[in-house]
Write a structure and sequence with these properties.
- The longest helix is centred in the last third of the chain and has 18 residues, at about 170-185.
- Helices cover about 55% and strands about 10% of the residues.
- Strands 2-1-3-4-5 form a five-stranded parallel β-sheet, sandwiched between helices.
- It is globular, with a radius of gyration of 17 Å.
- Strand 4 (about 140-145), helix 7 and strand 5 (about 155-160) form a beta-alpha-beta unit.
- It has one domain: Rossmann fold (3-Layer(aba) Sandwich), CATH 3.40.50.
- It is α/β, with parallel strands linked by helices.
- Helix 3 packs parallel to helix 8 and helix 5 (about 90-100) runs parallel beside helix 6 (about 125-135).
- It has helices at about 5-20, 20-35, 50-65, 75-85, 90-100, 125-135, 150-155, 170-185, 195-204, and strands at about 40-45, 70, 105-110, 140-145, 155-160.
């Protein structure tokens, strides 16, 4: 009996994998290949668990794919200062402004809901998407539910399929990691191998 819930949860994970939109992921890879060729920058934003994913993803995009990537959530002093002084909804948009973004750069949103202006949910993501568009930037995203503002205003946005409405958040945040790892390991993008796989290859 104790394993019943776990069995269902992992069965749902299999269902998510089977329903992922590979065409959208392929378009993400292609856009990031172009970003790197044009020496653009990748800005990643997210809140909660997705913020942690942003930090991890920055490492992978920089180290494995050779893309100049950054996220405002890595600087807690600036993040909290902007929240305190300018408001929660401006923390990402105003951070991006300082970077003087151009249309060569890309905003990548990781979020469960994608932001919703009317419900005042993740308004900082909504403002970040709007700011990106004022600079002619493309917006990528890995989101859940209906994709929210990111899906409706973004350019290449993957919606993690909902297979159980009770587990949207864990599946979305988990599959953000699954998807971006697939992206950075795609041979079109991967510039440097993962450590343990490289060691194994050398041993062989």
């Amino acid at each position: 009996m104790s394993k019943t819930w776990l069995a269902g949860y992992f069965k749902e994970a299999v269902q998510v994998v089977e329903q992922l939109d590979l065409d959208t992921i392929d378009r993400m890879v292609a856009r990031l290949v172009r970003l790197r060729a044009e020496r653009g920058r990748l800005f990643l934003v997210g809140v909660g668990g997705s913020a942690g994913n942003c930090s991890h993803a920055v490492n992978d995009f920089r180290k494995l794919a050779g893309i100049d990537a950054a996220t405002p959530v890595d600087n807690v002093s600036e993040l909290t200062a902007r929240t305190n002084d300018d408001g929660w909804d401006r923390i990402f948009a105003d951070w991006m402004k300082v970077a003087n973004p151009t249309n060569r750069d890309v905003l990548f949103v990781l979020s469960v809901g994608g932001g919703n202006r009317e419900r005042n949910v993740s308004p900082n993501l909504v403002a970040a998407v709007d700011e990106a568009k004022t600079h002619g930037m493309d917006v990528l995203g890995i989101v859940g539910r209906d994709g929210g503002y990111t899906k409706s205003h973004g350019d290449v946005v993957l919606v993690i399929p909902t297979v159980n409405s009770e587990n949207i958040t864990p599946h979305t945040e988990a599959f953000q990691a699954v998807v971006w790892h697939g992206i950075v390991c795609d041979p079109r993008l991967m510039a440097r191998g993962n450590k343990w796989e490289t060691i194994a290859g050398e041993a062989r």
